[in-house]
Records
---
Amino acid sequence: MTRTETSSRYPDIWKKYTPVQTLLRYVGYMIAVFIAVWALSDLDITWFYFLDAHVQVADMLTRMWPPDAAFIQNLTKPLVETIHIATLGTASSVVIAFPLAFLAARNTTYNNLTWFIGRLILVTSRSVNTVVWGLLFVAIFGPGPVAGIWAIAFRSIGFVGKLISEAIEEIDPGVVEAMEATGASRLQVLMIGILPQVMPVIVGTTVYRWDINIRESTVLGFVGAGGIGILLYSSINQFLWREVTVTLIAIFGIVVLSELISATVRKKIS
Amino acid sequence: MTPTTTSNTGQLPEWQRIKLIQNTKTRWFLAGVVVLYIIVTLFTLEVDWSRIASGLTRAGKMFAGMIPPDTSRLQLMFNGILESVQMALAASVFGMILAVPIGICGASNLVPKPVYIFGRSIIVLTRTFHEIIIAIFFVKIFGFGPLAGVLTLIVAGTSFIAKMVAEDIENMPPGHLEAIRATGASFPKLLLYCVAPQILPRYLGVSIYRLDANIRHSTVVGIVGAGGIGQTLAATFSRYDYDFSCTILIAIVALVFLGEIISSWIRSYLR
């Protein structure tokens, strides 16, 4: 068969997608573009502000430079407080999330109702942002680190609890069955059969959440819940941009440091 | 694991639970450090204990004020929610687009070292700062309103997706890159025929996840004046308008829950 014969018999050119698939794909793109355009145009945006944006940026940068070196001495205490808020908040969240995780895992919960309650608590905790929890706890406990600790804890319960409960659902059921066959009590099964299997996940998740929480606790001060955010917010409100630069550098430092620590610990565990 | 040894009497040593940290000394040392830390912080934190003590009664009053949720201003709430959703949608689309070039710049197996350092430093810098800090700067530059919020979410979303893209490209099997390069493909063709098919499923998955994260974050950037439902929420808190706060909080939880369901549904469909 010569080339011309082949091409006359199979006139189609190979394509990855059928015409219908291509059409669907383009419709998908169109929908995405349409959504973006609709969302942007429907928002109440003052495009006029773009005109002098570069002036504003230049103005801000010149005000931010050079960093106010003398301000560093005010930073130590709030920085330490920020780390304390994140650490204590994470610790409390693990203590609260631990029983909830067993409630929210299909294989350790009592019945459908308890499972649903467990899930509902975890979802609610996760859907409310740390700062919103902060608003709530500042209203309860007044401004200060205690509100921050509870805000961090309440947001983290959902995160830590969800990951632990997923780990519990993935354990080796043989261990549990073997223990139940020897007549172990429910508590013994939990403590000796399940806990050692999920312990690495608990520690890993905790450390991971701790490093996220350091980042979150840097802004809790904006709603009065303690930490370095209070300082940053007051510097910004007083237009002391050179102090802001120093604070931002400090925040950058502790966030990167905490990320390094958490990555190292997690690597060691797994 | 230590091998099971028999003692002199020929009996097995008493069985012990498997511990995460095998070394007893390290374990007790770490436990001691934790206890010490908690004691030290509890004494050094500046806490107004009398204010905390009044917290329970205050919480009681607050929750009493929250019930029943105020449903007389639903229109205002829906406007805020709609604004938040629109901000999240617009930001997600732009974040997806911007993340691709930055992600490619941050992949060490694809670009020369200076470009890599440039790409990675953009990702690290934008990732380090919380959305609210970024929002403050955009509010300063562009004034109050949803524009600052959208830009904030674009920056945060871009850096999140870009990091995933960069890591995905770096984890690609090197053979594929070499094979396409060996055919003499130019850099754009390499991206189109080698990189794109490999990272596309995860890129789409991460982008959908980010849409859901953007919805969550769009509910707070308003606290510093960057638009959305957060602005309304912060206002109700400062006016002690707790019954309306409760309505908004319920709406936010419902919105986030819905977003999560949709996002996980799309992601399972993509897989």
Note: Chain A touches chain B through 59 residues (CB under 8 Å).
---
Amino acid sequence: MANPDVMVRFDRVSKRYSSPGTQGGGKEALSSVNFELQRGEFAFLTGHSGAGKSTLLKLMMLMERPSRGQVIIDGQNLARLRPSQVPFHRRKVGVVFQNHQLLFDRSVFDNVALPLQIAGFTPAEAGRRVRAALDSVGLLGMEKRNPIELSGGEQQRVGIARAVVNKPPLLLADEPTGNLDPELSEEIMKLFTRFQQVGVTVLIATHDIALIERMGHRRLILDQGSMVQGQLQEGVYG
Amino acid sequence: MADVKPSAAKGASSHKIGIQAQFGAWFAHHQLVAVETLVKLLANPAAALLTWLVVAIALTLPGALWMTLDNMEQLSGRFQASGRITLYLSPAADIEQGQALSDRIAALDDVRQTEFIDADQALDDFRHNSGLQQALDFLPDNPLPAVILVEPPLGIEARQVEQLVEQLGSYQIVDSVQLDMAWVERLLAMLALGERLIWVLGVLLALAILLVVGNTVRLAIAARVDEIRVTKLVGGTNAYVRRPFLYTGLWYGLVGGLLAWILLATCWLLLSGPVDELAQLYGSGFELKPLSAAAAMVLLLSAMILGWLGAWWSVARHLDQIEP
């Protein structure tokens, strides 16, 4: 039975990327990963480059499908989603990318408004929410600017505003502080903490160990595709 | 009396939107995309011009052919000067009866003039024209009947001619009525061929429009891969991603159709003067008709549908491959 308090559950998830050159597929990016995130929890996902952090996040976004095992988010087994349901799953998951994935052919406002426009909000309601989201990341005065004019930290915050504007119950971030100096990193992390305080489940992939230690949240550690810390033991799920 | 407080969870709970509001937003997005894509095209017409012109020319060709045929049908509907009705009288009728009938027929509404040729005169004419003088001299009797030639007025409707023929055949001393309609039948056959030609040409050129619009939309998709990827990442459905491209195709079709219409109207302006002159020289009331409003609507509508289909075809092939 699905536990309503569990936001994310990975059940013996493995992912092997099939590369055309090698016989029997490439090496496993993830092998038999088990973990759970409670609703409203804040956790870090760490590990060396290539340890499988990005793969794990992609599975949650359905940018990839697992080779084995099951991913259950908000009580929904992702393997059972039809392609036409995938967009609606993605609307429940806010994502902050390392390269922020902003569109430079439109203003900051329009970038942040995109998820709302897609979800069918009226322009008035969307405008209200976009300004609230921009206010929460401290960029209210910049809504008419083009994101290309902004600094790296500001662009990252626009990306965060876009990720949270639709009030998703789950927020993922892939190296959100990768290109930022420590002060800016700190500021961004405080932002994520504020979202957690209003009930959002937050999972941040980073290798910024110093930052993680200062923040002191739960840590999930991946090494060569295996979860070496945070892994639930086999048999936990009766 | 106490305030009714909403019991729903606050904070991060995701907001649910009513069906009606969602439909309103869907409709608003259609409007927005329709206007946005049109503005985008018109803002940079140089880039779109080539596609518009190809669509326009591909539509003008069958359009012009259709206009020609439509006008030629006008011709077939009219009985021209070359058509004469020949009445062969029965051998029993004498010259006075024949002359009297000829005069009666000449007084009819749909008859311009008549000419009575009695049997002897007919034989005389035949003897002179055929060169069979000796052979004819051996005949004991005159084998030729008396004839009345009936000439209807210019520009009479074919239907009226048919009525006239029926009426003339009903006279007692008239043996048979012959109407030279062969040229009309040939014209009708040519029109049928032309119609088939329009279909073949139309289908080929419609295919060309699909390919051209499809290719233009493919380039537009390639230029917006980032946008498509991000849109899909934040939960855009395929329909949402598709929408601007379909509208772009629609506008390519519409503008191309308008251009085709302008081209056809220009052709008509250029040709109608000389055609009138030619028709007058032939003593015909024929005049070149422009494209009717209904035909123009069909032209525009099919242009829009073809543009949309071309875009759909391209989108179906390329868009689903772009996954985040």
Note: Chain A has seven helices and ten strands.
---
Amino acid sequence: MITEALMLSAILFVIGTFGVLVRRNAIIMFLCIELQLNAVNLSFVAFSRMFGIEGQIFVFFVMTVAAAEAAVGLAIIISIFRHYETVNVDSFNLLKW
Amino acid sequence: MSAVIAPVIALAQGGGQAAAEAAHFEPFLPGLVVLLPLLGFVLNGILALRHGRDSAAAVRRGEELDLGDRASRPATHTLPTWIGPGVLGAAFVITLVNFARMFGADLEAPVIVHYWTWIATGTFTVEAALQLDQLSMIMMMVVTGVGFLIHVFSVGYMRDDAGYPRYFAYLNLFVFFMLVLVMGSSYALMFVGWEGVGLCSYLLIGYWFSDREKSDAGKKAFIVNRIGDVGFLIAMFLLFRAFGTVDFVPVFAEAETLVYAGGLVTAITLFFFLGAVGKSAQIPLHIWLPDAMAGPTPVSALIHAATMVTAGVYLVARSSVLFALAPLSSAVVAGIGVLTALFAATIALKQNDIKKVLAYSTVSQLGYMFVGVGVGAYAAGVFHLMTHAFFKALLFLGSGAVIHAMHDAYHSTHSHEDAQDMRNMGGLKTYMPITWATMWIATLAISGIWPFAGFFSKDEIIWQTAAFGGAENAPYAALYSVYWIVALAAAMLTAFYMTRMMVMTFHGENRTGAEESKHLHEAPAVMWVPLAVLAVLSVFGGWINVPEAIQTSWVGLFGALPTGEWLHHWLEPLTAQAHHIQEANLGELAHSAPFGGGEVLWATISTAAAAVVVFLSIRFVGGQKTVPVAQDETAPSGFGAVLLNKYYVDEFYDRFVVQPIVRASRFCWKTIDSLVIDGAVNAVGLVAKAFGWGVSMFQTGSVNTYAFILTVGVLVILGVAVL
């Protein structure tokens, strides 16, 4: 049972990673990051069956932080969109020096 | 001085009895002798600082500084008149009391007055302690006695100078350090005084520091002295290695464990002598002393004639035990001394600046002192040191009085003629009779004319050299015979150049100028009284050490002159060990000169020859036509030019020492520092910058790149962890 859960988690994480690397739309990249986080959440829940409740508690933390991150991240994307009228990450390179 | 005054005091204290009882020597406030000049320095220093501040404030307010009006001078300018000479006078009185007590006591070993431990590291300690013995007592008498007279003279000479309090502050500080030098109980303490007097010498040579030439002369003196000081330090380190201490008493007690004429003792003494060469201006480090004449004339009298420059002689006399163990060093000491005596005397023949003549004369006389201590006649060296302090201080102060008068004369007509050039003088005898008379006494004394002080001291040195040269077992006996002849020749030169100076200054027609000569005047009492006292000492000072062997001849007025070899016996407790070493290793010295003839004969020959030279040079120089500087167009040629230019030693040093050092420094600065060191530092910075620039290429600002690198990074880390 746990093997299947971890397999699913790994597949989801790889999909998420792949999406972050190849897609150019900021929203989609963002969603892919959420996918990675939730893949990890899935492994936490799966492991909690073996090692106790702590894994599930950790999932709540991850979800809380992810929600906060989503709020900030979306706000940034909206702000960028207002400025450049695009959310294609190739068309801006602000994150340098 | 000592011999004249001390018996009087001894009598006042019930003298005869005290001496008979051979009383125990009880020092009387010796610390105060040292501290009083220091107190004077502090007080005068405070006054000088206030004086400087007030003067600066007055200048800022736009007020004229007028020192001409003596009544309106501020207290900061008048108080040093009392403080400066006052502390010296008090120190002299205390020294006299101590001298009287020591005179009454039969002092065998030095008395150490211990105050506190200055340095304590492991087994090595330096005590802050004063050593009172016969030698330090003589030096204290000279320093405080002659020092006091020169301080009094300074009042007249420097009263109108704007920096008057500063002058006395430095002068007091000098006396303090000089007393530390002669009274310290160890080489370390002596070195403190040694460096201190060097500092004061620098400060006083450059006293008129706004004149570039004068402040440069101060620096020259200081730097040349540094060379000698290195020798002093190395000698002290060697002593410490050999004995584990640098205190006088234990060092001399253990000195005889060193191998006679061995390498170590020779090295120690030669390094000490290097220090002495620097301080006492001997060849090859004599160049600073003539330049030191840039200072005020009383400073030249006190520091650069009577006391500080004799510190080297004191050092050798103090270390007599060590030098007696090193015959090679002693031969070097005497050789350098006799060479300097002749060399400086020849330069003095051609100088026109009155102070330059005296400066070279001082260098020459210091050479004689080194001959004395070099042949093992330590008492004779100290004797000449003492008499020289009298007559050379007198000559310098006299020249100060002359310069003072000349300066006033030229000042009154706003002339810019040289007040120190003897070509501008002449005929001053009628204007300043006291100065003339006292300076003639000193001139006869320095020329070695009987019965003046210089005759006895110089003749003693020359005779001892002859006796050493004639000794059978003496090392380098032939060399000493040469020394003896050169010393005799230099004595004749001394008689000539001193007489030339007197004739050019005081005799013949006056060349100062018609208008100026009306303002020539005799020195005030505050200046001529010290001259008179020193003149008395220059006459009688030599009588304290009439050689016993010839006291019954005409030299001692057939036994009428007092105290046969008093100074010699006085210093015996200190020189006995050295003489013992000398006698054990060399045997008795000769009683006749290398070419035969005893002490009386050679004393007669030398004084008669000197008298003839004095007489002839009066005729010769008096017959010469001297013209004032302004009209003097004759340039000396041939050897005269060489002498006038001091054998081009300064030029030689400039070319072969100073310039190479400047070039080497420039090389170090331009090539090593700017190019190599700065280049290396800059190169390191450039590499870091280039590396940073290269790495910054990865920082594209594109989110994708970052995500890619991040992922690759995580994969690499995981890969490494798994493998």
Note: Chain A has one domain: 2-84.
